[in-house]
Amino acid sequence: MNAISGAWDWLTTGTNWRGESGVWHRLAEHLYFSGVTLAVACLLALPLALWLGHIGRGGALAVNVSNVGRAVPTLAVLVLLTLTPLGEHGDLPTLIALVLFAVPPLLTNAYLGMREVDRSVVEAARGMGMSGGQVFRKVELPLAYPLVMTGLRSAAVQVVATATLAAMAGEGGLGRIITAGFNLQNTPQVVAGAFLVAVLALLVEGVLVVAGRVCDPSPVSRTRPTGPRRGRPACRTSRSGSNG
Amino acid sequence: MSTRRNCLVENDWICGEYVRTRGQDLIDATAQHLGITAVSVALGVLVSFPLALLARRRRSVAGAVLGLTTVLYTVPSLAMFSLLLPLFGLSAALVVTGLVLYSLTILVRNILTGLQAVPEEAVEAARGMGYGTVRLLWEVELPLALPAVLAGIRIATVSTVALTTVGAIVGHGGLGTLILDGLDSTFKAQVLTASVLCVLLAVAADLLLLGVQRLLTPWTRARPERGRTRTRTAKVAEPA
To answer: Span A2-239: which CATH code?
Structure first.
C-alpha cells in the first residue's frame, strides 16, 4: 500500500500541479488534443455515416472500418506518424492519429443506428407523405440517436486513451506524467498519473452519458422493444475498439 | 564501409537487410507477443465463464459484473498497466493481468448474451429428459451459445493483439517493444516491420478463430434459415 500513499503524497504536493510538466498544463494539453480531434472526427464521420445509413449503402465499409480499427495498434500508428516528415510539425502526428482512431466507433455506431430503425416505421412515414429529408430528420435521426451517442462515447473514451499513449511517442498530455514517472523509476508518480488519467476517462464517459440522456430527442427510444437488446451488444463491442 | 550503402544506413522504411540481420529479434518479439496474447485470452475465458454463469443466475450480480467490467474498459491502457505497477513490478504478469481485465468486458458480455439466447424449449426438453444442471450446461446450453462465445473470443483476441504493444512501457510488449525502441533510435525499418507484423498477427488470429468457429459450429452454415438467425446474433456482437 506504499504505492497508494506515495501516489497520494504526489497528488497533494502543490509543485507537481504547476509549471510546464505540472498536472494543470498536462491536463490542458490532453483536453485540447481530445476536444479538437473529437470535433474533427465527428464532422468527418457523422455526416457520412448518417447519409450512408439513410440511403442504406456502404454497410460493409461502415462495419469493417471498426474491425480494422481494432486490429491496428494505436501505439504503432502514433510512432509511425511521428517518424514520418509530419513528425516535424509538432502535434500534427498525434492529432491525425487521434482522429483516425475516433472515426471508426462514430462511423459504425451511427450507421448501425440508422439501419436498425424499424423499416416499417420508415415506410409508414413515407406513406404519410414525408420527404426523404423529413424521414431523416423526424424519424430516422431520433430513433438512431441512442447508438449515435454510444458511438460518440466510445470515440471520446478512445480519444482520451490514445491521447495518453501519445506520451509514449514523446507528446504531451497526462500520459507524460506516467512516462516521466517510468523514466525516473518513480512509482508513486506513475500511479498518480495513471489515477488522473483513469479519473479523466471515467469523467468523460460519465458526462457524455448524462449529456446523452438530457439531449435525448425521444424518451421513447430508450424503451423501444428492439432498441436496448439489439443495440447494446453492438455498442459494447464497438467500444471494444481498443483502449489505445 | 563506403560500399555498404544499404537500406540500414539509409534508414529506409522498408529494408530486407533489417529482416535478414535482425530476424531473431523479430522472431523473439513475435513469440513474446503471441505468448502474452494467448495466455491473456485463455485466462480471460477462464475467468469470464464463472462470472457469466453467476451473472446469469442473479440480476444483481449481472448488473455489478457488467458495470465493473465496463468501468475497467473505460480506463486507458497506459493507465491500467501503470496502476498495476505496484502489484507486479516490471513483469509480463503485469501486462497479462491488464489484458485479462480488458478482455473480461467483451467475453463476459458475449458469453452471457449467448447463454441467454438459448431457446427455452431446448432447455425444457433437456430437463424433461432428466438432464442435471451441469450436463444441461455442457451438452445443451454451451454448444448453443458457442457462436456468440466464439465471436467474443475473436474480438477479444484481435484487440488483445493490438493492446499487447502498450506493454512496451514495462518492457514486455512483444512487437510493441521493438516499435518503441525503434522510435528512440528513429529506426524506421524496425518500426514499420514490427507494426505490419502486429497487424498480420491480429488478422491471422482472427482468421484462425473464424476457422475454428466454422469447424465447431457447422450448423450455422448447414441450414440457411436458421443459419441466418445465428449469424445475426454473432453479427450483433461483432460489428465493431
So the answer is: 1.10.3720.10
